[in-house]
Amino acid sequence: MSLVPESPDSSSNSGRQTSSAVGPSRYESQKRRDWNTFGQYLKNHRPPLTLSRCSGAHVLEFLRYLDQFGKTKVHASGCPFFGNPHPPTPCPCPLRQAWGSLDALIGRLRAAFEENGGTPEANPFGARAVRLYLRDVRDSQAKARGISYEKKKRKRPQSQSQFQPQPELPPSPLPPQPAQFLQHEMIGGEALTGIYNNQQPLPHPIFLHGHVFLTSSGDVDGGLIPLSVHY
To answer: What spans are recorded as compositionally biased (Pro residues) (predicted)?
Structure first.
C-alpha cells in the first residue's frame, strides 16, 4: 500500500496511457484464432495428431472440413445457373469456402507455424499438395461462379519527366535583310562618303587627271561615275 496520496492528474494520465496502448492488429488477431482452431482440429482428430506429425495431407483434410461452414454458393456442373455470376433464383447447390478465404487462411497458418518454432522446410502449409489443391479450387470456382480470379496488373506510374511540359523554343530569327549604310573612305586626305550595300560592296576608286572615278555596279550606263575631289 502506497502512503503517498495520488494526485487527481495521476489517475487521468494512467487512463490516457492505457487507452493509447496499441493492441494487436486485425491480421495478428485473426492469425491467432486460426492457429487455435487448427490446434483444436488436431486434438479432435481420430487418432489425435501432433503438430510434428502433421503433413500436407492433414492440411487438405482440414480445408475440406471447413467447407461445411462456407457461405459461398458453388454451382454444380448440372445446375442451370452454372457459370452465371448472378443467378435469378436460388438453387440447391452446396455452400463452400471461397477460394480467397482459403488462400488467405493458408497464408496465415503458414506464418504462424514458423512463428511457433516450425522450420520452413517442414511447414505442412507450404506443401506442394496444398498449393495444387488451392489452384484447383480457384479454377473450379471461377468456372462454376462465372467470375475471374486473375489479378489485375498494376499500371506503372509514369515518370515525372513525361508530365513536365516541354520548354517552348524561341522563334527562329528572320534572315538578315540587305541594309544600306554610309561608309567613309579617306582619299587624298579627304573623306569620301558612299552608300554601301551588303550585297554590293563599295567599288574601288580610280585616279585619273585630278578626278576620282568609281567603278559602277551597273546602275549607270558607261560604267564610270565622275566625282570631284578638292585638294
So the answer is: 167-178
Q: Exposed/middle/buried for 152, CB within 10 Å: 0-12, 13-18, 19+?
A: exposed
- What's residue 211's pLDDT? 47
Q: Which residues pair with 183 in a beta bridge?
A: 194
Instruction: Note if the bond before 47 is cis, omega within 30 degrees.
Output: yes
Round to whole Å and give the CA distance between 18 and 162: 50
Helix crossing, 99-115 with 26-44: angle to 10°?
Answer: 90
Residue 9 CB neighbours (<10 A): 8
For residue 111, which phi and psi values (nearest 5 degrees)?
A: -70, -40
Rg (CA), the chain: 49
Q: pLDDT above 70 covers what percent of the chain?
A: 56
pLDDT digits (tens, 9 = 90+) for 45-81: 988 888 889 999 999 999 999 999 999 999 998 999 9
Indicate the pLDDT class of residue 146, thresholds 50, 70 and 90: confident
CA 223 to chain centre: 79
Residue 207 sits at φ, ψ, to 5 deg, of -95, 120
